[in-house]
Amino acid sequence: MLKKNVLIVLLLLLLAGCTTCKVAEAGEDGDKPPIVLDSYAAESVRPGATWRVFLEVQDADGDIYSIITQVVQPGIGYYPPDFTYIKETDREGFAGYLILRTPRDCDLLQEYVEATFTIQDREGNKSEPVNFTLRFDNKSGFGPQEAPEKWQMAANNKLGTIMVEIRSILQDNQDGEDRRPLSP
User: Is position 156 within any domain?
Assistant: First the structure.
């Protein structure tokens, strides 16, 4: 009886030791955050145009989960964060773009927004943030932004839409009054 109990205890310890090794091994590999290799976005767009943000990302673990976008606007404050979930095929890495639709509001010509992009994997590891400032001007057209030559291939991979509704400070303070649209 004693031999049987000792044998069971030894077997349980052996199994517990193997399980601990596997967990520790997975933890070591799972601690690598995604890396943003490169990024690009136009510095300004016309109100009413669509802003494209290009990102090239790699993850050694192959488990990229989402892109977190935080937009802040002086005079307005922080907009709620936006989460763009990554397709299974892009989990190891991707080169693609996000879009942000801007309103046709001429009062935005005096304003700008700052956007911070962070890539998160399934373990919660986050990349270093990437920051862009978007200014509004009357010089840019309403059509799609031209992607630089380096980003031509990425221009075929739309990752998603940043679901943030930009507004002007004036619009924010008017509490529902009619807005005058920007004429083309």
Answer: yes
Average confidence (pLDDT) per 10 residues, the chain, 184 residues: 54 50 42 95 93 96 96 95 96 96 91 97 96 90 79 95 93 60 44
Query: Distances from the Cα of 49 to the Cαs of 52, 58, 95, 129, in angstroms?
Result: 10, 29, 22, 25
What pTM did the predictor assign?
0.77
Residue 4: enclosing H or E segment and its boundaries? helix 2-29
Distance CA 114, CA 43 (A): 11
Give residue 67's domain range: 35-141+149-171
Query: Do residues 139 and 47 touch, judged by C-beta distance below 8 A?
Result: no
What whole-number distance in Å separates Cα of residue 129 and Cα of residue 29?
22
